[in-house]
Request: fold
Amino acid sequence: MVCTKHHKKGVGSIVGAVFFIAIALMAFISFQLITMYAADYQRSLVQYNQLNLERLQERLSIIVNKTSSRLDVKICNRSFETAIISGVWIIDLTNNNHTLLPSNIVLGSGECFNVNTDNINYNSSNEYLIKVTTVRGNIFSNITGG
Amino acid sequence: MIGMKRAKGVSEVISSLLVLLIIVSIGVAVYAYSANIFSSLIENYANTYLFNSLLLKEHFIIEDVWFINNSDVIKITIYNYGSVSTSISAIFINDTLVSQPNIIIEPGHRVTIDVTYIWKPNVIYYIKILSSRGVIIDGMYKAP
Reply:
């Protein structure tokens, strides 16, 4: 009789313990998953702040020189960060004509680059706007006289 | 006497089985309830964190706006400088919806969208781009 009672109590405890462990395991896994998602969000936030900081520090100067036969465009990196130029827009303001010169030029700190403008329809009497886009999302511009 | 002992033994077995059945039923119910709560909790957190994480990675700019001469077309070039793809869901000019292109721009790429709009020379237009995640980029552009 004593033996049977002990046996009954034992089965109930084991079943209860199994459910408790299962629920505790589920809670632990849930917590781990939530922590993982939160860590990923934190990483994204750090990257976002880093991009904004680098973006603010980016400085490019555009030197434009018009000659009778061609438009000379020189881009110089004036910041401490390396800049990657994703595109150069040559906009003829006189004729309202926009030309994109796609590029993937990497400019180290203090480096300069001469843009090849041979393919644009150049007229020395026209006014041009030069826009330079970087991979960090900055747009730098300079304008020439008519 | 022997019959009574047998009867008592059978009822104990049945009662034990009943108790076990009740315990298992309660256990299953509690487990199912907990599983439901935890899964909805994970889903909520995952959606919130993933969505906000993607929002932080989505960056795009209006790179160029070209009002085409003698036409009602405006070419808007959008550059994605973020680390996730962007879906352009709507374009507004002067707060009027003019296009719903649903164009996806991959990171590091640009797309030019032609918008039909009757523009007038020397007028400033307020152009607003809305992504499917709800990011808005806007700017003022003067027609030539």
About this structure: Chain A has a mean pLDDT of 89. The helical segments of chain A are 2-57. Strands of chain A lie at 60-66, 71-77, 83-92, 97-107, 112-115, 128-134, 139-143. The longest strand of chain A covers residues 97-107.
